[in-house]
Design a protein that fits this description.
The protein has 142 residues and is α/β, with parallel strands linked by helices. Helix content is 39%, strand content 18%. Strand 3, helix 3 and strand 4 form a beta-alpha-beta unit.
């Protein structure tokens, strides 16, 4: 297993101080490779990931940062662009039967945003010639 974060290890510990250190240690103890400062836009080119193919690639709670208010279209577009970049990278990192998973919050305004993200994923389907349904456990049509 490989776990990545956009933030540096120090930043992860600072942001999530109550659980980060123990969670990172537990992952390491289980043999997980931890990679920090990995951007979804370029993750498929990361030196330790470039030649690997995965059964599953998961993005837990994607968030593009706090640029605008969460419910504003501009902020939703930032999130869509982030997830679109993730799909583009992740699809190239899967083995033949691999799956892409995205977890998301379900409270407002995130629920609405998640639906926009799914719609965005369908819109990219032709661009990447991928049957996105085959890479999801559950996809809601909107």
């Amino acid at each position: 297993m490989v776990a990545t974060s956009l933030d540096s290890k120090e930043s992860v510990i600072c942001k999530y101080s109550t659980a980060a250190s123990s969670n990172l240690k537990e992952l390491e103890d289980l043999g997980c490779v931890l990679l920090h400062e990995v951007d979804v836009n370029t993750m498929r080119q990361h030196p330790l990931l470039v030649n690997q193919r995965f059964d599953r690639v998961v993005f837990n709670f994607p968030h593009a940062g706090f640029i605008f208010r969460e419910h504003e279209k501009s902020q939703i577009k930032l999130h869509q662009d982030l997830v679109r970049a993730f799909f583009a990278s992740a699809c190239e990192m899967l083995n033949e039967s691999g799956e892409v998973h995205v977890t998301h919050k379900t409270a407002y305004p995130f629920r609405t945003e998640a639906l926009y993200l799914v719609k965005g994923a369908y819109n990219m389907q032709q661009q990447y010639d991928v049957d996105l349904r085959s890479h999801f456990d559950h996809v809601e049509e909107i």
